[in-house]
Structures are given as structure tokens and as C-alpha cells.
Amino acid sequence: MTTPSGCRAWAGVDDIPADVAALHSAAEWCGYLELATDILWSATGRRWRGSGHMAEVVLRAAPPLPGEPGWPWHQSWGHCRCYRGTNILGPSWALDWVGGHHEPNSIRLPHPDVTEVTSVTIDGQLFDAYRLDGAWLSRTDGSGWPMCGERTVATYAYGKDAPAGGRLACVELAVEFGRATCSDPKERGRCQLPRRVQTVTRQGITYDMLDDFDFLQDGLTGIYSVDAWIRSVNPYGIKQAASVWSPDLRRARTTT
Prior knowledge:
- With 256 residues, the protein is an alpha+beta fold.
- The chain has two domains: 110 residues, no CATH class; 106 residues, no CATH class.
- The strands form five sheets. The protein has a four-stranded antiparallel beta sheet with strand order 1-10-6-7, with no helix packed on it. It has a three-stranded antiparallel beta sheet with strand order 5-9-8, with no helix packed on it.
- Helix 2 crosses helix 3 and helix 3 runs antiparallel to helix 6.
- It is elongated and about 85 Å long.
- It starts with 17 loop residues before the first helix and ends with a strand.
- This is Head-to-tail adaptor.
- It comes from Pseudonocardia thermophila.
């Protein structure tokens, strides 16, 4: 089987072991791989979303006001007083504002895992005098980015692939989802996913009890080999990547 187009997962359908591949179609395996990817992405602190994502962002020196539709914004973009709010045509700017406009030389793009800037336009014209440092986009001609009036648009790729261990964990978790939902009773019996109802025998008395799934609160799956990898890359169970703030970070400047 080949991986269907549009399948965004840490592993491909061709990574599914041959002895279970026939249990589902390629599209179904893609769904299980994407489900496993979502779970592992969350369990590992949202570090590897996978490569190939694209974004286009309009640089605006104004965060959305209360009640306005949201848009990407970072404090490095500044907050220009020429912004007049949103009307039926979109954000409104007083470009003749005499107090000057924010034009920072460096701005941080919305995603922290930017891998490539594919294009930048200013007033509809391609612009190439820039440098990418991590998620920071800097002009190299000594000028600042026009942040008012919807003048600057950046298109970029973001997302990083998981390491080899993550790919193996993704396949293993997807296989267990596939076994749990297949029509073959023998394969369903091999499923390693934790069961909600467990039979417990104590002091000669056998009874059923509900598993409280404590491992889910710890960001784990209940499958030993998968959880071992999760703990190897996220030993403290953080929920998202750490961020740093410093008064020395680059800020927006105002040009008059």
C-alpha cells in the first residue's frame, strides 16, 4: 500500500507491518497514523508537528481588539496608534497618522518551528533582502518592515519531523488502533491497548472494575514501548515547549 496524498503523520502507510496491513485500507491506516501522531505530538510537549506545513501571514502592528476576529500577532510587531479597528472591509489604518509608524527591523513569525521563508512581498512586490534566524525574520538593507496598511506579507514553511523513535512509536500505536477496530477476532485479541474493564481477583473473589486510566493524566498511552519513548524525550511530562522572555529581546521601533 502507498500513503494517500494529504496524509499528515509521523509515519507512512508503507511503514505498517505486512502481517497486519491487510486489516484495513490505506485510507483507514492513514487515519490511525494521524490519530497516533496527534496523541504523540501532545504527549511529547508539542515539539514535532511534522514537516510540510505552510502559512501566509500579513504583518500588522496591531493585536486584535476585543470582539474582533483573531489574527497572528507578536509583541515584536509593535502596536501602532494608526490602527482604527476592523470594519466590513477588514482592518482600517490611518496611514497619514503624524505620530509615526512601527517599522521593526526584525520580527518573530507566528510559528516557532519555521524552516524556510518562501516569499516576502511589500506592496505586492517581491522582496528578498531578508535573513531568517530561527523564527525571526530580519531585513538586511537597514530599513524596517512596513507593519501598517496590510503592506507586508510573508509566506513560510514550518514544522519539524519527529525522530526515528517517534516514527516507530507512531506505527506501533496506529497498529494497535487498527487491531482494536478490525473484524478479525484473532487480531483483536492481540490488541495491547488498555481496556476500560479489567477482571481482578483478590482473596479468592473475582470481580470486574473500571480502570481509571491514570496514565492518560501523565500524558502516556498505556503501551510500554510507546510510553518508554515518550518518557525518553519528555521525562517531566511538559505540555508544550518552553518559551523565554527577556527585556533584551528585540522590540518594534517607531519611524517618523
